[in-house]
Amino acid sequence: MRTYRGLWASNRRGSSRHQLLMAMMAMKATTWRSTKREAINVGLVLITMNEALLWTNARYFLQAAQQLSNQWKLMRIGEDPAVDVWMADNLPNDGSIGIDPWCLSINTAQRWECAFAKKKQKLVHTSTNLVDEVSGYLKENGIEVREYGVVSADVSLLASNQLGPWVFKEIQSDVSGGTDIGSREDAAKNIKSEAEDGDSINFIWAGPGSCCYALYSKLDSDRVLLKQSPSALAKALKNPIELDGLRKAHIRDGAAVVQYLVWLDKQMQEDYGASGYFVEGETLAQKKKLEEKKLMEVTVSDKLESFRASKEHFKSLSFPTISSVGPNAAVNHYAPQPNTCAELDADCIYLFDSGAQSYKALRASGSGLYPEPGYYEDGNFGVRLENVLVVNEADTKFNFDDKGYLSFEHITWALYQSKLIDLSLLTPEEIDWLNTYHSKCRETLAPYLDDAEMAWLKKATEPVCA
User: Fold this and answer.
1) Is the distance from CB of 237 to CB of 218 less than 8 angstroms?
2) Residue closest to 211 by CA, chosen among 366, 102, 365
3) Which of the listed residues 17, 329, 420, 421 has the most CB atoms within 10 Å of its CB?
4) pTM, full prediction
5) CA proximity to 25, closest of 144, 111, 197
């Protein structure tokens, strides 16, 4: 598990180090395969004098319940009280809540300060991260502590002689619109006054949701513009060359996925007596398997990576592949480990969630949309669908109020397993969409597959009907 944003709460600051150590040692140690880590990416730990609590969202409920010892209390985001509400209600008056300001956004810190004000509780900036302080003890007890990544901060210095009038309009617009972000109205007055006096206007532009509180607390708040970074939109808008690279990268990746499925289908039939990708029915009598012939979650994941690595411009995986069978697939971000992973089972659903980075088309936030509907049934299975979409301007017959319309372009070419679709639940339009998408998969991937692979793909994407 990763090092979380950590909080400690106490009326006696001197005891916090020992209390944090005791609580962190209660966490079960996790093992990792090579540099791949089974991480809870969204988590916040609160350590009080008497309790250790972990807040995380629904994607990690199962994993956290499995990995935390009984000395921890799991707080489910969306079901249990939010961390600031819990602290305001349960911590004593005049209590101090210690934070690492490098791991907290401006928005979060200011929201917490408002919640704590009624009981005169306060945030205390720790000079060092308390997890780092006890990391030696943790390692001695078999608990890995992962290093922090790059601090998430998006701050721009705006020069008055270049952007003064525009910045003034932006602030005035937000103030008149009722946006409540710190002392924005005062900032607007300051800008107007300085502009009239002909003085230079130097402001720091800080994204309140991405800039860390440590940087903000060192600045003059009257000279900070709290607003989403002006670079955010520019990052989201990809130029034609970038889009062309993304489309080609996903075509190569789609071919790798098909080649993997062809290989896996063949192995499951030969080694496990599976009915196969196309045939409905019970598993045939299992064949006797030699020890080295077993297909494990880790080994098939490695095979998928090898297909991807064979493609032009491959750089690395986008993230550790989620390769999971049956109950393991119900854990959203499951990562198989060599010594504990499950063997494939012809009678269980197998889920893999994976991606690749290419030299000429690195997967990046803002390059498109990543809708990923899923269903996870604890103890049984998980299903997840994820296509990358590019948002384009749509050419429509009508254009109400001249605002224009947008459309989605699929650039992921990974077939759907028709055996897992209850076609009776689909409308005729949805069935037509599925058949059209599969037809485009065949057309797009054909140049990258050999005759046997193409024959398999044609059979796997045959038109369906209700």
Assistant:
1) no
2) 102
3) 329
4) 0.71
5) 144
Tokens 């880590």 — which residue? 37
User: What's the rounded Cα separation, in Å, for the pair 392 and 48?
Assistant: 50
Which whole-number Å values give the CA distances from 67 to 42, 385, 398, in the listed order?
A: 15, 26, 55
Question: Torsion over CA of 420, 438, 271 and 346, rounded to 10 degrees?
Answer: -10
DSSP 172-234: HHHHHTT---TTHHHHHHHHHHHHHHT----EEEE-TTTSBHHHHTTS-GGGEEES--THHHH
* Cα 287 from Cα 115, distance rounded (Å): 63
- The Cα–Cα gap between 378 and 381 comes to 7
**For residue 268, which phi and psi values (nearest 5 degrees)?**
-65, -35
What is the Cβ-side half-sphere exposure of residue 249, based on CA atoms within 13 angstroms?
A: 24
How many H helices and E strands in the chain? 14, 17
Taking a C-beta distance cutoff of 8 angstroms, is the pair 249, 313 a contact? yes
**DSSP three-state, residue 333:** coil
> pLDDT (tens digit, 9 = 90+) per residue, 374-386?
888 888 888 888 8
Cβ neighbourhood burial of 120 (10 Å; 0-12, 13-18, 19+): exposed
Q: Is 393 exposed, middle or buried (0-12, 13-18, 19+ CB in 10 A)?
A: exposed
User: For 384-426, what is each residue's pLDDT tens digit?
Assistant: 888 899 998 898 988 888 888 999 999 999 999 999 999 999 9
Distance CA 88, CA 81 (A): 11
Residues 6+ apart with CB under 8 A from 15: 49
Distance CA 275, CA 312 (A): 34
Per-residue b or e along 216-244, where b marks 16 or more CB atoms closer than 10 Å to that residue's CB: beeeeeeebbbbebbeeeeeeebeeeebe
Q: Each residue of 267-278: pLDDT tens digit?
A: 999 988 888 887
Measure Cα distances from 447 to 171, 224, 252, 442, 450 in Å.
53, 54, 10, 9, 8
DSSP assigned state of 260: H
pLDDT in tens, 312-371: 999 999 888 999 999 999 888 888 999 999 999 999 999 999 989 887 654 443 446 777
Mean pLDDT across 304-316: 94
Q: CB pairs under 8 A, 24+ apart, for 75-79?
A: 77/42
The answer to whether 116 touches 123, Cβ cutoff 8 Å, is: yes
Query: Coil, helix or strand for 301?
Result: helix
Mean pLDDT, all residues of the chain: 77
**C-alpha to C-alpha distances, 62 to 2, 66, 117, 152, nearest whole angstrom:** 16, 6, 35, 28
